[in-house]
Amino acid sequence: MNARPRDLQAFLDRSQAAIIACLSPDGEPMRVARRIGEGLRLDAPQAPRKPNRLPVCGQIAGALQTARAQGGAVAALADSFAAIEPQLAWDRRWTAKPGDAPFYDGHANATIVGPDGLEKRDDIWIGVSLLAPHVRYPDHHHPPQEIYVALSSGDWMQGSDDNWVTPGIGGHVYNRSNILHAMRSHDRPLLAIWSLWVTDRV
Ligand SMILES: [Fe+2]
């Protein structure tokens, strides 16, 4: 029996719909998206966390307003994210240092499904990243494949600093296993949802 709260289920459904909508039917990104979708049919223990907001979270409302203006699947995803956002425990990336004020004060992450999520599980991690305007997220890489859905404008680095892509609002970025990647905002906040298929390590 699925004990998942309705607002979380609605968010996951709309997140999956937004991912599927922007992928071509064949290829590795769709394979990953489908496996995430199949995995999410089974719920996992619900693990409500003490909600936490950082000052940069004041940027969320503006980002959601931009996403809602797109209409369609992006607006629906923004609405369902807004419904669960008050439950989230926003935090900084573990590498963030107070001495690097633009990044330290200009970003936040929250896990929705995953080891530290509202639903505790190891096989699928879904969360959200927020950047204030003109912030660059550090380069990073990880074994699980990852799909970002952009709810805002912004750029994503793929492989090296001379290769940035701009998916546009509602677009996606697929990160193959261990590819070096990063993201950066422009003159508006960047809000993006990421999904990782953790058990499909290569
Ligand atoms: Fe990543």
Structure, explained:
The chain has one domain: Jelly Rolls, CATH 2.60.120.10. With 202 residues, the protein is α+β, with helices and mostly antiparallel strands. Strand 4 and strand 5 form a beta hairpin. The strands form 2 sheets. A 5-stranded antiparallel beta sheet has the order 1-2-8-3-6. Strands 5-4-7 form a 3-stranded antiparallel beta sheet, with no helix packed on it. The mean pLDDT is 95. Bound molecules: fe (ii) ion (FE2). The site of fe (ii) ion has 5 residues, from loops.
Evaluate the radius of gyration.
16 Å
Main pleated sheet: 5 strands, antiparallel
What fraction of residues sit in β-strands?
A: 15-25%
Instruction: Label the structural class.
Output: alpha+beta
CATH architectural type: Sandwich
- Spatially, the strands of the biggest sheet line up as 1-2-8-3-6
Q: Roughly what percent helix?
A: 25-40%
How many DSSP helices?
Answer: 5
At the fold tier of CATH, the topology name is: Jelly Rolls
